[in-house]
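Model: You mentioned two targets. I'll fold them one after the other.
Researcher: Yes, keep them separate.
Model: Target one:
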Amino acid sequence: MLGKDYAYFIEIARQQSLQTASDLLFVSPSTLSKYVQRLENDLGLQLFERVGKRFILTYAGHRYLAWCQRMKAVEDRCQRELQHISANGKKILRLGFPSMHVKCFLNSIIPAFLREHPRIELSIYERNSSQIWPMFFDNKLDLVFMYKNPATLSGNIQNAVVSTENMVLCVPKGHAIASASQSRAGFPYPWIDLRAVEHENLIVVSESAQDVVGSIESIFNQYIPAPHIVMRAMVLESIAIGILQGIGISILPDRLLHLLGYRNCFDLYSFGETPVICQYRAFHYAHSSVEQEICALIDLAEENLRI
């Protein structure tokens, strides 16, 4: 139903006269008469009692009028908002990223972005990574930032590396494992053979979150025949807190620990034949209506998230 149809019905009900309503609506009485006949036929209900030349609402007509008024109000509001957007060039950019990165983005990246793009409105969705990706896949988000391997993505999804980070063994300060570490060329932290943690309690990522952050458990399985896992978590910050509380040790991205404010709470160790890295990436769809703004925000994130 179009907005003019709402207006037709509301005005006929208000004036109780096709002639008077037609004068106010600038249409012929015959046009309104055909409109009422078609509407009543479509609904299978009588909306007006014809009393002489007066059109008096039936009970069904009163209920239909109430809905017409609601729908017209919504349409009017929609038109005003679209006119405002057209006049001001305003766009909405829907962002999604793990809540653990919100603080960093709000402290530096987003304020700088809004200064450069004052006509953009941001809608921020903070979820764990396993919840964000389905929202993005359903086109409910324009841009997401997360740890995810892009190898299986469709060609319509673009991605850019925002930060390359070292995966490190993370243990509480002063942990006895320090005695097994050594300096090794090419590694950013003291190196350790992961077989040395065979008897340690380990914290890993829940299966439902492995697709977006990788399987920490699979790394331990390469070195330890039967790793002793005491906790699984979907949120990486929960793993960091578990380490801090002495529940176990784990593997996490070093940059993430810095962003969360835990970097100085732990001792960090490199491992593997070569440094093990992960990449924090930005994902968006090709040919988005906010593509220019997406690229600008990615550039700012790359600049601010370098280690």
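Model: Target two:
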Amino acid sequence: MSFKYKITLFTPTYNRAYILDALYRSIQRQTYRNFEWLVVDDGSTDHTEELVRGWMQDGNDFPIRYYKVKNGGKCRAINYALDLAEGELFFIMDSDDYLTDDSLETVVRWEATIAGKPGYCGIAGNRGSSPTETPNTSLMSMYGSDYIDEYAYVRYPEYTDKVVDGERAGVWYTEIHRKYKYPEFEGENFLTPCIVWNRMARDGYKIRIFENIIWVCKYLQDGLTMQGNMRFIKNPAGHGLSIREKAEFLNYSLIEKMKMWYTFYCDHTFCEEKYRLTKKQCAEYIGAPLVMIWGAAVLHKTLHILKGKK
């Protein structure tokens, strides 16, 4: 399949007009120019549309394409953008962060090292707290190299004792990612990206993970990362799918599954009342026998009683 650009830089955004300029300016500074910037506005009620349409008139040497959709969450926006992308590589860039000046140049240089080789779904660079600093453990310290070729499972201690920690900046082959769109659940608007990464790994696709920082993060109070566990509590179908597939793909033992079922039960039962699930719902979402969820309830009550006696 032929593509018009080397890279589609894709940004899903929701009410981020107050911060989006930092990303835009970093895109303008890129040392590599064969890319498009695709923006999907997830139903913003601020002046995002006016802002981006204004930038489209700035005379940039890269195209800006803007689409506004009904609010449905980041993963629906990704699915929508995958059908629109005209770049060989699909780089999802959050609206509250910004790129290092040589980010896209670095992406192209690393992609060239795997181009034409079978079994790769893409590459992943480092995310930093600044263009020169990252909280993530260095690959060199763990692997003795500035890159590794691994499955996405390398983020899990159940898979390896050399866990690639922290957040990484994934850049995917568009043609492959289109085969792995996010499932969509009625009434839910969040899914962890791990679902897609794990499915790619299950099917034998590796990622070339490299050390260079290409993305600088800002953790805002209204960002997904800062919302923490509530993202999962509010979206139980997606949460249940992500962890039960992880258990399947990593061949969890019965004991490991029981721990997973217990944690899911506790998370979704002892939370704000309007988000609480019944035992039957817990069993359905997590894919557990109902008797195991009843067992989790008994165990939790017993532990609570024992704790109260200490």
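Researcher: Noted. Anything on target two?
Model: Confidence is low (pLDDT under 50) at residues 222-226.
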